[in-house]
Design the sequence.
């Protein structure tokens, strides 16, 4: 019997969790490497109070990889509604924070919760450290903290950590042994790049025999990627990875109704990411374009099963 192919996916919470919802059903071995510098919402409050790495994105990924009934996953995602300090906290965040306090390790806490949720794959934090994401704007200003970086609506020349990150050795091993390395959909600035501003991670990607795949966002992120086309996303990633590192890019060409586009533009300041073929012709990476989006629930998001089937098909070439 052939061993299962190994996929390493680097990302953050919502985007990566959408990919994993479908990918977990395919005969592959997945390692999800998740950023830990989120300092907003429930995650940020717990991080500040208990001096722990951020747990929110990890919670989302564990929920998506769980093989238990939806009701159990709903409990993980449930946010408390109360007048006390508990208001707004996600139950999964509280569970993970409690486990960290008991075990002293985020990695061990994830392993415990993975068993409880019957997760068949591996979830790893990028680091066990308390990391603070920093951004230097094109004007030379330095902005501290992931939430501030997002809400500042500035263009960034570089991103880095305030502290020296200690990347988990298991992360480096997984990347080196992978058959496919995926840079996930999700916030370019705060979900994907935080994984690749660590020299050890970049070195491991270059040392691996695996192809490097980027799943491009379908919509721009306000204040981060306004006006970006597909090639702009790749250029930013390769600013950190090195030119020619990405082998294949997946982009969606789903036709979206004018009404939905107007709603996204007016309510969320988001626009479609243009597939700028004129800037991609001659580039060393392969571009795969498919109809990958769904609006079934009234919002625009990647169809996890369609996307996962495309990933698996590429992997098995």
Sequence:
């Amino acid at each position: 019997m052939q061993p299962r192919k190994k996929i390493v996916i680097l990302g953050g919470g919502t985007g990566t969790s959408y990919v994993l919802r479908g990918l977990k059903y395919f005969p592959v071995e997945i390692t999800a490497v998740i950023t830990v510098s989120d300092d907003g919402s429930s995650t940020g409050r717990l991080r500040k109070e208990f001096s722990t790495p951020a747990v929110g994105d990890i919670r989302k990924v564990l929920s998506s990889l769980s093989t238990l009934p939806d009701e159990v996953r709903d409990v993980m995602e449930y946010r408390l509604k109360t007048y006390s300090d508990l208001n707004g906290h996600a139950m999964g965040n509280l569970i993970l924070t409690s486990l960290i306090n008991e075990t002293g390790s985020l990695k061990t806490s994830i392993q415990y919760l993975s068993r409880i949720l019957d997760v068949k794959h591996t979830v790893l934090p990028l680091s066990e450290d308390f990391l603070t994401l920093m951004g230097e704007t094109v004007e030379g200003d330095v902005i501290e903290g992931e939430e501030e970086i997002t809400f500042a609506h500035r263009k960034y020349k570089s991103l880095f950590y305030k502290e020296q990150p200690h990347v988990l050795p298991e992360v480096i091993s997984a990347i080196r042994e992978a058959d496919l390395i995926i840079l996930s959909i999700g916030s370019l600035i705060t979900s994907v790049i935080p994984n690749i501003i660590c020299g050890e991670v970049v070195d491991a990607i270059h040392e691996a025999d695996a192809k490097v795949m980027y799943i491009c966002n379908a919509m721009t992120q306000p204040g981060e990627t306004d006006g970006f086309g597909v090639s702009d996303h790749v250029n930013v990633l390769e600013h950190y990875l090195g030119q020619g590192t990405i082998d294949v890019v997946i982009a969606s060409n789903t036709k979206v109704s004018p009404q939905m586009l107007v709603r996204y533009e007016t309510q969320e300041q988001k626009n479609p990411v243009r597939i700028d073929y004129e800037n991609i012709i001659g580039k060393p990476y392969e571009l795969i374009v498919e109809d990958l989006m769904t609006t079934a629930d009234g919002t625009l998001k990647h169809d996890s099963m369609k996307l996962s089937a495309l990933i698996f098909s590429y992997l098995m070439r």
Remarks:
- The mean pLDDT is 92.
- The chain has two domains: 5-35+165-315, 39-122.
- Residues 91-103 form the longest helix (13 residues).
